Amino acid sequence: MKKIIENTIKKFINENIEFNEAKIEISQLVEHVFGFTKKDIMLNPSLKASGDKLNQFNSLVKKRLKQKMPVQYLINKANFMGEWFYVDENVLIPRPETEILVETVLKYADKASKIIDIGSGSGCIAIMLAKNADFIVTASDISEKALETAAFNANKLGIKERIKFIRSDLFKNIEEEEKFDVIVSNPPYISPEEKENLQPEVVLHEPHTALFAEDKEGVSFYEKLAQQAVSRLNPGGFIAVEVGFSQADKVKDIFMKNRFKDISLIQDFSGIQRVVIAWI
Fold it and tell me: Which strands form 180-185's sheet, in the order they lie side by side?
């Protein structure tokens, strides 16, 4: 097993995958296919791989390297805030930056009861909000397949009954009189012009409707969201959104123009302004 791993690391490096990343991804593939953890291999480097399992492993490695498929889609799971979520090519892969969005909402929503997650995808935001506080959560998405994934994850983590799933483009299918204490969203914010600068793993496999905005600045979704959110928040409620690099000030201006106030910008681990939060 040790020799297989060493040879696979070389293949990853030859495809310009950084050494530490290669080790992490290969460890995930090995555990997924063979059931061997890193500790298992350290304690017993002579572990053997059966022919069928080895063929399965090599097939996944080929997809990772030749088709540029992210390892999370190969093993159908991604970690978010310490929980494992099922993911496939119908939903974005949850990222650490989005954990900051959830943590921000949890910090400021101590008096909130009703929350809606717009563009829920895998359900990671809605689910972790429901799991960490006593909220009534609505998860909405324009994609039926994404909602099925979100519902599967909610059931897997034991809180499906605490989340309402609804297919909707923004608030289109949400009852007109229904209001919320918090609106949260990680919307499509990458401009089409940026596509050529993205990793092929992202462009080739992650859902474009969840990635790309309609305008060259990547803020078209925020404009629609801000316009509709004003009438959907209870007094004292707030909206929190994830934003892309250099978008925070533009999104802040959009919220200000739509009568939001007390707007704050939250930085991520790299010092990039990643979350915008605004009160009504």
Answer: 163-167, 136-141, 114-118, 180-185, 233-242, 273-279, 261-267
- The pLDDT tens digits for 132-159 are 999 999 999 999 999 999 999 999 999 9
Q: What is the pLDDT of residues 4-62, one digit of tens each?
A: 999 999 999 999 999 999 999 999 999 999 999 988 888 887 888 888 999 999 999 99
Residue 146 has φ and ψ, to the nearest 5°, of -65, -40
Total residue length of the chain: 280
User: What SS3 state is found at 138?
Assistant: strand
Contact (Cβ atoms closer than 8 angstroms) between residue 212 and residue 250 = no
CB count within 10 Å of CB 187 equals 21
**Mutual angle of helices 2-14 and 51-66, in 10-degree steps:** 10
- pLDDT of the residue at 196: 85
For 100, residues 6+ apart whose C-beta sits below 8 A from its C-beta are: 242, 266, 268, 269, 274, 275
What tens digit of pLDDT does each residue of 181-190 get? 999 999 999 9
Mean pLDDT of 183-198: 92
Could you give phi then psi for residue 12, rounded to 5 degrees? Answer: -65, -45
Angle, alpha carbons 170-125-33 (nearest 5°): 120
109 phi and psi angles, rounded to 5 deg: -100, 30
Q: What are the helix (H) ranges across 76-132?
A: 96-108, 124-132
Q: How far apart are CA 184 and CA 120, in angstroms?
A: 9
Q: What is the C-alpha separation between 137 and 106, in angstroms, rounded? A: 13
Compute the average pLDDT of residues 165-180.
97
